[in-house]
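> example.struct
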């Protein structure tokens, strides 16, 4: 390859990355005067992560604008008409500049009155799935409507719920395989299966490779799905820990590969997670009594609200390195929604302990390993 061709390849690559990072969207949302704004919740998905709009930013007129890394950003609006009922969000595929006007119908439900450069998610494949799984969804929804308030009080009801949910999920996988060309299918696969530890990551990787087009795989989201699945496969005991670079809450750069001369405890947690909080004293004892030259602790918060995260860090005296909800770090470790998750990484970068793999739900085994290594 001559110098001119190399230059063109580099230039194209730079322009592609710049173009990928310059996609912006804007959506204007209007709510009727009769609506109780305290019952409204707004989120949007930008291809990288789902972002919750702060409640104090929700007024009759809401304007949202951000970067996006997907075919279409997705707006999700929930209206809690009755807390005793199951409330499903209204979803919309957005364009670069969209507008949605809402109203309340005679049943008291939130409905879109006008869509400009926006598509109701039901018209993007969801309605097609509803028909495809009509029987299974009917059984699931009827059960929920009747028992949603009793699931936490009855083991038998909860087990029935899990069985009905598994039937619907199986139907979704069938739909995905049959209609993999629809963005809806890809979205469901990414959001309901890819990070779901109930489903084998290698099996999901096989479905991903077999059914989705190369065009879909080469998108930002497609590459992200691959990274998350590989993260799930690789972030297990005995594997080399996936590398990452991220900023901590103080703005310092944390690069995992630079800790190869010491042991690292990597902790995924959230301020609202009671088991996570219960384990903080154990991590604190390691931090206080172990040599900082021999072991480091890095906690990665999964909080959506940074203020809550910072308050918890101060409250529980988490004086070690803290990263606030970094999607790239989360994805590298499979974006596991099951918290807490704790890893011990040795000096070579290998995972030698995993809270999940070792079934160590009080960190006693981790403390034992740290002592055995002469670190505590």
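> example.seq
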């Amino acid at each position: 390859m001559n110098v001119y061709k190399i230059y063109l390849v580099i230039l194209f690559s730079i322009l592609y990355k710049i173009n990928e990072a310059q996609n912006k969207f804007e959506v204007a949302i209007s709510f009727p005067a009769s609506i109780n704004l305290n019952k409204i919740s707004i989120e949007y998905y930008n291809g990288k992560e789902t972002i919750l709009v702060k409640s104090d930013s929700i007024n009759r007129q809401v304007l949202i604008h951000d970067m996006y890394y997907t075919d279409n950003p997705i707006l999700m609006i929930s209206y809690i008409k009755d807390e005793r009922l199951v409330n499903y969000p209204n979803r919309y595929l957005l364009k670069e500049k969209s507008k949605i006007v809402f109203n309340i119908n005679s049943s008291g439900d939130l409905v879109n009155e006008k869509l400009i450069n926006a598509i109701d998610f039901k018209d993007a494949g969801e309605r097609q799935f509803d028909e495809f799984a009509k029987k299974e969804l009917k059984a699931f929804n009827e059960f929920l409507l009747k028992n949603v308030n009793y699931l936490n009080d009855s083991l038998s009801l909860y087990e029935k719920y899990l069985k009905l949910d598994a039937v619907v999920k199986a139907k979704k996988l069938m739909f995905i395989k049959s209609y993999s060309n629809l963005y809806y299918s890809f979205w469901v696969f990414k959001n309901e299966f890819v990070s779901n530890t109930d489903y084998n990551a290698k099996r999901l990787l096989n479905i991903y490779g077999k059914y989705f087009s190369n065009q879909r795989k080469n998108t930002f989201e497609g590459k992200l799905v691959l990274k998350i699945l590989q993260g799930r496969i690789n972030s297990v005991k005995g594997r080399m820990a996936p590398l990452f670079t991220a900023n901590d809450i103080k703005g310092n750069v944390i690069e995992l590969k630079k800790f190869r001369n010491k042991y690292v405890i990597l902790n995924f947690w959230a301020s609202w997670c009671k088991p996570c909080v219960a384990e903080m004293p154990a991590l604190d004892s390691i931090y206080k009594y172990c040599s900082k030259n021999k072991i480091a602790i890095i906690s990665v918060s999964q909080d959506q609200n940074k203020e809550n995260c910072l308050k918890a860090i101060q409250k529980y005296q988490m004086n070690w390195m803290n990263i606030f909800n970094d999607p790239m770090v989360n994805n590298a470790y499979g974006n596991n929604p099951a918290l807490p998750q704790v890893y011990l990484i040795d000096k070579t970068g290998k995972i030698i302990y995993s809270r999940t793999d070792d079934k160590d739900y009080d960190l006693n085994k981790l403390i034992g390993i740290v002592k055995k290594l002469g670190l505590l």
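> remarks
The chain has three domains: 3-121, 128-234, 245-372.
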